[in-house]
Amino acid sequence: KFNVKAVIDTSKSYFNFNLKNKDYKLLNHEQGHADIATIYALKLKNQFDKTKYFKASFHDQIKQIYAEINRQVGEQQKLYDVETNHELNALEQERWDLILKKELNLN
After folding, report:
1. DSSP state of 55
2. How much is the pLDDT for 10?
3. DSSP letter string over the chain?
4. pTM for this prediction
5. pLDDT higher than threshold 60 for residue 107
6. How many CB atoms are closer than 10 A to CB 104?
7. Is 44 in contact with 38 (CB distance < 8 Å)?
8. Pick from 13, 35, 12: which is nearest to 23 by CA?
9. Which of 9, 32, 40, 83 could covalently link to 73 via disulfide, CB atoms 3.0 to 4.6 Å apart?
10. Which of 33, 43, 46 lies closest to 7, judged by CA?
11. Whole-angstrom distance, CA of residue 58 vs CA of residue 54
């Protein structure tokens, strides 16, 4: 059994918690990145749990699964930024907000 979690490095976020006038649209966008990380952590755990492991290749199987999910999450994060134009495209941001909310509710 595997324990998988998404770890978010807030020091790499563009949102500045110390500003008096906070940009909550940007905070929402950054939350989307955290949601994507959470969705893919769940996908990683599901893939780990459903895979049949072989003693001789156990470590290689884990590395391969991780590499594939890591590739997918990277692509999803980039697509999110491109389509939302880093939160500047309000309609696309709303569309992604709904997609991510739906994905999180399914898992």
Report:
1. G
2. 77
3. ---------GGG-S--TT-SS--HHHHHHHHHHHHHHHHHHHHHHHHHHHPPP-GGGHHHHHHHHHHHHHHHHHHHHHHHHHHHTTTT-HHHHHHHHHHHHHHHHH-
4. 0.89
5. no
6. 13
7. no
8. 13
9. 40
10. 33
11. 5
Encoded tokens for 90: 């309000």
The separation between CA 42 and the C-alpha centre of its own chain, rounded to angstroms, equals: 9
Distance (Å, rounded) from C-alpha 17 to C-alpha 25? Answer: 13
pLDDT, averaged across the chain: 91
Q: Which pLDDT value is given to residue 93?
A: 98
Per-residue pLDDT band at 56 (split at 50, 70, 90): very high
Across 48-69, b (16+ Cβ under 10 Å) vs e yields beeeeeeeeeeeeeeeebeeeb
